[in-house]
Amino acid sequence: MIPPHLIAPAVRDALAEDLGHGGDLTSQAVVPAGTRVTATVAARAPGTLCGVPLAAESFRATDPGAQITVHRDDGDRVGAGDAILTVAGDARAVLAAERTALNFLGHLSGIATATAELVARVAPHGTRIAETRKTTPGLRGLEKAAVRAGGGHNHRFGLDDAVMIKDNHRALADPAEGLAALVDRARRRVGHTVTITVEVDTLTELDRVLPARPDIVLLDNMAPATLAEAVRRVAGCALTEASGGITRDTAAAVAATGVDVISVGWLTHSAPALDVGLDVTT
């Protein structure tokens, strides 16, 4: 699920950050050179996995001869105590990669786990769960892959792959232009394959923009009753996306309004990491 071309560069940069110029001073000082070890990465809590290839690559990067057995893959549901992968190799190298491997696996699995929970809560309504661009700098592709591993869908990846007209764009536009005019101008500017989203805060704004037929209307911080009325007014002429302040507890009620997509920023910026650990077995 994680694009292969993202794995090695991410691991390289993370290990460089952790090992610095001198490497793992502790292991070099206390673990005899040439010591071999077998260790298992396991879940300490139930969750949905993402980042297994990154964890495996972390150990391979410090010991190219390491033997790695993968027991569970990205997208798998695990319980507390379940083995995820086993690594056998040079002890110093395994310890040097330990934190990098666990950081990737715990962080991305936390996102996947939170996404899977939201997906389950809205499943009866057929609503899609998506993240936003509120991602960790440098990790966007990985974090968006984690959302997919949890059964969610991806929002735009960057500013260059879709138009999204938000409140600050409107504030800086010509005040004589209305929302519909902004959509028309954007459509003339971009290619025919580029979708156009307009953020609206009220039903009045929605009514003003619908004649321009944007591809998506982002219904921002609306109560469920207002969302339901917005969906009725859109009547299928655009995709409807609800966003703003949506939590685990409110997601089902939001989905019940009939919106097509719920976008949630905290999936990538605040989801708690899944507790995973590495245990030396021999």
Automatic annotation (TrEMBL):
Pfam family, one: QRPTase_N
UniProt domain Quinolinate phosphoribosyl transferase N-terminal: residue ranges: 24-109
GO biological process: NAD+ biosynthetic process; quinolinate catabolic process
Gene3D superfamilies xrefs: Aldolase class I, Quinolinate phosphoribosyl transferase, N-terminal domain
GO molecular function: nicotinate-nucleotide diphosphorylase (carboxylating) activity
Reaction catalysed by this enzyme: nicotinate beta-D-ribonucleotide + CO2 + diphosphate = quinolinate + 5-phospho-alpha-D-ribose 1-diphosphate + 2 H(+)
Alphabetized SUPFAM superfamilies for the sequence: Nicotinate/Quinolinate PRTase C-terminal domain-like (SSF51690), Nicotinate/Quinolinate PRTase N-terminal domain-like (SSF54675)
Pathway: Cofactor biosynthesis; NAD(+) biosynthesis; nicotinate D-ribonucleotide from quinolinate: step 1/1
Function: Involved in the catabolism of quinolinic acid (QA).
Protein name in the entry: Probable nicotinate-nucleotide pyrophosphorylase [carboxylating]
Taxonomic source organism: Limimonas halophila
